[in-house]
């Protein structure tokens, strides 16, 4: 994102130096030139040596990551084997099946290419075909992602500026997360039932006993207690090692899904409480933001972000800022779509970005070339990567915020980034007419395009797919604008937030009732804590004194002074199982409240 604009500006500079002209060439003069400059007129400096080596290292390391290393890591992370050797074996088997089919198809294409086009397939040609195939696959993903994000990014910013819409969407998400949480709890109950049968069949002397203990130790303390309270079944046959591996794999996945849904549910509740507070403070004549549930904040935040500043930001300035950003991103999206549709046209130049770079080159303004290129690439990267973060394939691949994403999903997102980045850079170079394999009017090309490779061997790819497939982005943008994908998913049973749908309205009403119930429950808990705190303060006079005359601090009631935090409850539920047994028992004993001495002296 930051190095490619430097390569672009250096390419424009080299073009001027090699042609030995006093003024830079625009697209018209470059198209009329038919001969390249002599080699002696092109001075070699340090960027000419740095850029090629840099792009080789960056490109081929990312390709090795996305096609070789990360798939192995991904299969290793989801393997349910109990040893490192077993996990590596499972990962190798999974990738052998996956890449064996790939190699078979590629072999057929190479044989067809050798016999039909008459091209000699040496090592360099095969390497160019491999890199070009990877870039073509990345271009296919890029256009699909941009077709969604170029519309959704400005629309989300505009919708987030509307308080009622955002609050309604939170109610909808609360209802869906409540359903997901209930399904995760049912899955855990099924796994506990299977574990109960396994523990009853495998005794302490069984060869598979240590594997069963490994699975049981993955459970949080509360689930282990729940498992121990179940009645053992009668005459259960002992499991096999393969069935234990599958059970181990299901247990890891189910525990992660349960923890993730619990955390997302609590975080969405906090966001909903905040939005309800914003709606209430907007109607308040007092310009000081009031929270329903007071939370402790750092001293710096209390100084720099007092209630007065918070009120003006949340109730007045934030909506206009989001609307301004929505307009700016909307204009950028229109420019990207127009340039994607028209970048193949050589004369006249219709691509907006190509004209901007050409105008900056006429004035020798290399800083403007770097700045404008960086901003445009940043926006394209943001649109593509933000869509990657929103992709959800059932519960197999799901990127969740606040550290709730599993290893499999994180590695999958890294693979997507490695595959998308080279294609995005090549696509941007095509938009500004610096890809000589698409627009042949430029005499010199960037070092990036020299290293990346192109599918010139297959004519249908070089002259058809790479040029005309990006035009599909306008159809995808129209489909996203009319929410055709969301409506189709709703018809298939995957309920989406569609405003004019009856089921959406029912889920919003259900979410509103859930928020009211959770708010009443939290208020009762905080009122109970407040009463206990007041009661302990009234009884402070009856606390015993030490030898120095100071009152002895009783730690039993200090626990009630802490504000209620649902996230701490989740951390305690899912974090204690990883601690040693001794520390777990100490925490259990610490939870027992010891009454202070002299409690009933006034009776």
From TrEMBL:
GO cellular component, one term: membrane
Topological category with respect to the lipid bilayer: Multi-pass membrane protein
Sorted UniProt keywords: Membrane, Transmembrane, Transmembrane helix
Main location class: membrane
Region Disordered: start-end pairs: 520-558, 573-603
Location(s) in or outside the cell: Membrane
Basic and acidic residues bias locations: 524-537, 543-558, 583-592
Transmembrane feature ranges: 96-115, 135-153, 320-344, 364-389, 410-434, 465-484
InterPro entries for this protein: GPCR-associated_LMBR1 (IPR051584), LMBR1-like_membr_prot (IPR006876)
Family indicated by similarity: Belongs to the LIMR family.
Official protein name in the record: LMBR1 domain-containing protein 2 homolog
